[in-house]
Amino acid sequence: MEELTRNQIPKIAIVGMDCYLGGNCHNLDSFEETIYEGEQHFVPLPAQRWQGIANQKQLLSKYGFDDRQAPLGAYIQNRQLPSVGVDEFDPQKLLMIHVADQALQDAGLDPGSRVAVLIVSATKLVLPESPVIKSPDTNNQLANYVSHKCNLTGPSLTFTAEQKSVFPALKMAQKLLANQEVDAVLVGAVELAGDSASVLLRNQITPVNTGVNTLSYDQNSHGWMVGEGAAAIVLKLHETAKRDHNRIYAAIDALAIVENTTSAINSIPTHIDAESITQACQEAFALAKIKPTDINYLEVMGSGIPSQDESEIKGLLRAYGTCEASLSCALGSAQANVGHTYAVSGLVSIVKTALCLYRRYIPVVPQWSSPKLPQMWQDSPFYVATESKPWLLEAEATKRIAAVNGMEVDGSYAHLILSEEVGQQEHDRYLGQIPYYLFAIAADDQASLLDQISTLQNIISNCSSLATAARETFRTFQKHHHPTYTLSILGRNQDELMREIERSFQGVKIAFETGKDWQTPVGSYFTAKPLGKDNKIAFVYSGSFNAYVGIARYLFRVFPQIYDDLVNRGIYNRAANVEKLLYPRSLKKLSKRELETIEQKLIDDPVALLEVEVYFTGFITAILKDYFQIKPQSAFGYSLGETSMMFAQGIWTNFKQSSQNLNSSSLFKTRLAGCKDAVREYWGLSQKHNINDENLWNNYVLLCPPSLVKEAIKSENRVYLTLINTPEEVIIGGDPQACQRVIQHLKCNAYLTPLKHVIHCEPMRSEYDEIARINTLAIQEVKETIFYSAAEYEPITLESNAVGQNIAKGLCQELDFPRLVNRVYNDGSKIFIEVGVGSNCSRWISKILQDKEHFTVSLNRRGTDDHISIIRVLAKLLSHRVDMDLSPLYSLSSPSFKKNQIVEETITLANHTTDNRFMRNNQPEILPEKYYTLPISPPSQQYELLEFSQSQPRYSMHKNSILTEEPRVMSKLIANNHQTSSVLLRDRASTDLLEQSISLPPKVSVGSSASLSHSVEVNDTVLPQEDNIFIAEEKNDKALLKNNRNPEIAVDKKQLANLRNSQYENLMNNAFNMAQNHKALLEIRQVSLHQISTIIDQQLNLYRTLFNQSSD
């Protein structure tokens, strides 16, 4: 506990982020869309990559690709990168500079801010290309350049992944902020891991995925997936971020890091320790002062490397294990979308998790089926989402909490606890970025409208951004006040929009000629007889018991403010239970049959269905009223839709009380549903009448006039006409056999409804008082809207008891929906907007008013995304000239951030030095393969080079080792300082696979050792060597050189430091202090220079005065 106390740090806020990853993830928005939609970016190798290596079939075969094909991967192709520094930096560094700049802009930091820059660069795997000894400044050039270009004044440090990976760099950032040495810290990481040498080398150690591209825990996944890119986050102290009113993506509550000295420092570390993973988790829980059950989402490494995955699963199950399978925590991994980005993977996971917290959703794992080793997962809290879904709070939770698990190449295991920032105003631009565009055109006559269509046609045919074109078209539309006609054009892309525009020329003409509305399947719409100017709008609330699994899944994504809607906020008290029914949880993907079973369970729970109706209609109402400012003049409900109306319109605000009333009452459990005791009592059925609940009562839809049905049921005392939907459609309920006799007598079309409850009939009159009690709640008056009830088919008096009595009376008697609709219509409402589940009410209203002027729309249709339905409805209402605010569709008020104005140009990943060198060294013949593992031998870092002959290496998952025949081993201990003896062998037989450097020691063999002290002469410089060097038994350096052609030995003094040494940490701290002191010196010098300048100005003024006096 003492160690945990020492690690306690102030809360940190993530205030800026950006990333550029393989595929189409070119910025934060595209990455977030990838995560939510479950998109994957694994494509064939781009033509310009690998420079001919992809065509070397024998070479690919020798490096483990049996199909002789380059693997699919999330490769980066052409990119917009900073043009400044193109000659100075390679594409990898340019990519990092670009992403860092975007992250700083996202954070809105001012130039000159005290911001530290910490960059983790690509893994160093192989020998250096050049013997040139680089200065210490060269290694730090990348971070220095970012700091310089953005005019930042804090320290800047660049690490390789072996030195300090993302999580240790994050810990350093926390210390800098805690010590108030800087105001913010940028942490970035970059690796182009899709280069030929990176992929081929790593494929030798452990194979690329040959199965389904998904989370590697899946039973159909068999290996790691190629990915690459860069990411960056900007951090501040949480209290500072709040004081500065920064947007906070997520708060870092705890970071625990455990170093495993038996692990390998490599891009593919072996000897993974499950216990260390468990320890990191437990320390993080303690630091954050939470329980594992408080965490609802866990972002895992899921590397695809068998030994890593198995150890990670074991370690997490131990840390998060419960005594029962509660399914309270979702699992996910960004690698299922963008592949294994190696040095960047930890930061990509952090960015993804922060976005999920900020947007408040659980992300999908694409192509997930079921886990490997299912017996290991029994009684675990984990499930996997096969569709992204709203992240609703558990009953007792106050905020959303997530965790990120990391296993880095520097041998460290990390567990990071993140939480949402509660109560901040979210600036969501996603609605304006959805590729479903509404173009509004206004005119006062047909000719002008056709001219406007031609103008739009030219705009679309030449535009490069449809979102921008839609926004500018809307700005033009806003300038046309009170137009007579409005045309709505909808489309997802340029081709579709051009087709819709072409169709509109003829459609508009026909609409004017015939008076009939023009609309297309895509959603474009025009009416020559708009009704919105002189007629009222009515909101229609459909009856309950129509909800289905998956409803409203997308609404929270598109309209995030509904989370905070005052009417719906009370729903959170029951949201956790309802959410589990609407969005089922499972560790395996549910089959269609399993989903049908779950939905039937939902249908069989009337209380849950009723709550879902309130849940959904409240959201739709809030969207129309609060987002788009559509205000109804009247509202009414169908059956139990009246209760939904009361909550959605804000007449009732205490959903918790209503939920408690419903759940504590037997009304919809045993009286009107289940065993239906109210019916049994009304029919006089004693216990000896052993009638099964399923056979007691059924409901049927009949396509028959009500008058004929009323006549037919006179002879049946257990059949009731419950609802009249239209003049040609009714619902009857009662004894199943008696209902069948009525249907046979009428010889009409009929079908059984899935609902089994009793409603709108004489047998339920005994429940009148209970219904009134449940629906007698505190109310608040809602002005400007008239509310109608089916109790008396007239407006409701908004008084608590009166509302409860009206609802009870309406539910206990037959419902005549046409009568209710005609009453509202006669009072002046001609536009009907159905805001409940489905579109039954809209269909019925159209039948009821088929000979009258009216317009009806619905906002929910199963199988269609809700936001698509909403935009289509808006398009129709717009053409009918309904007053509304469409600005949320166009991101007119999206937040702006300060730009650092770095000019960009397109960079193509081709002719990369790695690919060129690999090709040069491997033609015309295939030479022996080489790869490297880098185990740690404390207190120093030991590099070990395994060189194999023609034998093919085999990877052992159980032993975490590489197996081959007659390996020749070379290793050397590297000292804990900055001066390295790096030896480069240059000849045709030596294959340096990557451009990054590695220190090559004298050839030795593991097995015997001796203590000695010696030195190596390098460029006339004698470098001291460490003791305890392993001595070669089989061959010495001379024998090695003798077998080589054109041998050259170049030695680079530069050497990796042992970053685990406390002296190195002290050195870093001293460096930071020196930087701060130097900064203070410069500030003092600047003040001094300013004072000197002032003195000089005063002297000049004095000379001028004396000169003027002498002249006088």
From TrEMBL:
InterPro entries: Ac_transferase_dom_sf, Acyl_Trfase/lysoPLipase, Ketoacyl_synth_C, Ketoacyl_synth_N, Omega3_polyunsat_FA_synth-like, PKS-FAS_Synthase, PKS_Beta-ketoAc_synthase_dom, Thiolase-like. Residues 9-420 form the Ketosynthase family 3 (KS3) domain. SUPFAM superfamilies: FabD/lysophospholipase-like, Thiolase-like. One of its GO terms (molecular function) is acyltransferase activity. Keywords: Transferase. The keyword Ribosomal protein does not apply. It holds the Pfam family Ketoacyl-synt_C. Belongs to the thiolase-like superfamily. Beta-ketoacyl-ACP synthases family. This is Type I polyketide synthase. It comes from Anabaenopsis elenkinii CCIBt3563.
